[in-house]
Amino acid sequence: MTDELRKGLEGVPVAESELSRIDGDAGELVYRGYTIEDLAREARFAEVIYLLWHGHLPDADELVAFEESMAAERTVDDDVMDTVARLAAADENPMAALRTAVSMLSAYDPDADAPASDTEATLRKGRRITAKIPTILAALARQRDGADPVPPREELDHAANFLYMLNGEEPDEVLAETFDMALVLHADHGFNASTFSTIVTASTMSDLHSAVTSAIGTLKGPLHGGANQDVMEMLQEVDASGKDAASWVETALDEDRRIPGFGHRVYDVKDPRAKILGERSKELGEAAGDLRWYEHSTAIEEYMAEEIGLAPNVDFYSASTYYQMGIPVDIYTPIFAMSRASGWIAHAIEYTEDNRLIRPRARYTGPDTRELPPVDER
Known about the structure:
Elements: E1 20-23, E2 28-31, E3 34-35, H1 36-42, H2 45-54, H3 60-71, H4 78-89, H5 94-105, H6 119-143, H7 158-167, H8 173-186, H9 193-203, H10 208-219, H11 227-241, H12 245-254, H13 272-288, H14 292-308, H15 314-324, H16 332-353
Antiparallel strand pairs: 1-2, 2-3
């Protein structure tokens, strides 16, 4: 055993995976051999889920059967929905509410007690979890605003159905396509913190609901999820200030404020997902006749590149993209979870196929062995 300490396990390989490859120097992201650019532009989210879970892209018949099986699982048990309503009334943090609801789903899953080694049962549970998260999230967002939940529609695809449940009306083709693309971009990204949390839980041979709940709790942390919400709040502050974006950022940096959406533990160059979402943000702004969010973003990106040497990550342009789609700012991170659940589930299945309990060590830095005095002598 080595005694070398690598805090945060940075750069330490802990497992092999066929799911996604990241080249931080070149700015590349690949899912099972397919570039993120090709998948984002040519494949739908359902195809990407199938690819991650089954190892290959579905043919036409497989895709239809898979989408129908997913759509049939969208309805959430009344007890869970009642809990979601209570959490909404209590103004619970959306990620905390999602964590609670997903954990509760296991009580109503017919495969809940199937062993983790039963891959087919795990896939069925994964299908139910992935299908129900949008229903939970849309209901939470509506109920806290005093509106009734909108039941899911099986004839709509995953992205369009979520926007329909969220807003109460069927989205136009551009919005549905853009949101579907965003889900594709967020589906997987190597052994990030929440994915690692997933496989740590899965390595104990615990159930899939526990693994996904662990991941949601991890994603809730501001050092992992939440940056896209911070980015949009920053853009709103820039817009309200009346300053040009570069001047605003300069002042913010002088005040030692952090500029969210920049830098990445893996990428040394611009995140490839940010490039794709930046294009979509611009297209949405042009369609609406309002390019200010895109223009604020590009001005900040240029300043940060020239003055600080940092490139934007996926959160930076997802913020303005989601905002222009009418999505509430504080459910950006739960939407991240809605997509990433597909990757978490794929990693849980892959890891347990050749499982080894994850059990790292800590370097002890406490006192040497001491005498234990009686209580009346302490």
